[in-house]
Write a structure and sequence with these properties.
It is built from 10 helices and 6 strands; from the N terminus they run ααααβββαβααβααβα. By secondary structure, it is of the alpha/beta class. It has 3 domains: about 5-50, no CATH class; about 75-160, Double Stranded RNA Binding Domain (2-Layer Sandwich); about 160-245, Winged helix-like DNA-binding domain superfamily/Winged helix DNA-binding domain (Arc Repressor Mutant, subunit A, Orthogonal Bundle), CATH 1.10.10.10. It starts with a helix and ends in a 6-residue tail after the last helix.
């Protein structure tokens, strides 16, 4: 059973801070026999506790947790992406791949190879090395430019967030030569109010063409923005057979 005066004492110490805790406790003990008895009972424990070394200054737990997660992610993402270039009906493409899956596609805009490599590293948060073009990759892209479709097993989305993956997979359901709105994609993934967020995902798409953000347009049907320019977006759609409604 707690001394009622102790409750009042702690309210005073916590709320108004008119006295130090030690002074307030000493004053209370001198005037409260029940608490004196309790103090004598636990005096030995109190002494032992007072002999313990002072704890180190408190750490920023949030910072420690974030650093720990970053270390784990770094270990998980130690496998490098191999970067190569390949000629296609659309022109030269930079392609990043891991084993037998494509993790990055970029249309050549004349940027130096080192700049492209740094861009891929920043987007996927993985080391990138320059490699050769394997036969399977050439075959996969040849098949894509014939059919404008890609096997889901050929793309690697593990470095993207679940929301990014869902939005891009929904875009991949749009048939070649057709377009859908950002709101349509948001609805498909069960986030009908996330059209703006979907637009951001499309703008950061590391696998354009294969995961066709070029088939996603604004609510009015206009082609809207595209990382490689609206003219390139229109060109890709025409290659697929798209004809804008008049």
């Amino acid at each position: 059973m707690r001394c009622r005066e102790v409750d009042e004492l702690w309210d005073e110490v916590r709320g108004e801070c008119q006295a130090t805790v030690k002074d307030a406790v000493d004053t209370h003990l001198r005037a409260c026999p029940p608490c004196q008895d309790l103090y004598e009972e636990y005096e030995g424990v109190a002494y032992c506790l007072s002999c313990l070394p002072q704890p180190e200054p408190g750490c920023d737990l949030t910072k420690r947790v974030v650093e720990h997660i970053a270390q784990i992610k770094h270990k998980e993402r130690s496998t490098p992406v191999e970067l190569t270039s390949i000629q296609t009906p659309l022109g030269r493409l930079f392609v990043g791949f891991k084993e037998h899956r494509i993790a990055y596609i970029g249309i050549d805009t004349g940027a130096p190879l080192d700049e492209v490599r740094e861009r891929v590293e920043a987007r996927l948060r993985r080391p990138v090395v320059i490699g050769e073009t394997p036969a399977w990759l050439s075959e996969t892209l040849d098949r894509f430019f014939r059919t404008w479709r890609v096997d889901d097993a050929s793309v690697d989305l593990e470095d993207l967030t679940p929301f990014e993956q869902a939005a891009l997979r929904a875009a991949a359901q749009i048939p070649p030569g057709e377009v859908r709105s950002y709101a349509w994609v948001a609805s498909q993934i069960g986030k009908p109010r996330a059209a703006r967020a979907v637009g951001q995902v499309m703008a950061r798409n590391p696998l354009p063409l294969l995961l066709p953000c070029h088939r996603v347009v604004d609510s009015s049907g206009h082609l809207h923005n595209y990382g490689y320019g609206v003219e390139m977006k229109a060109r890709i759609l025409r290659m697929e057979g798209y004809r804008a409604e008049r």
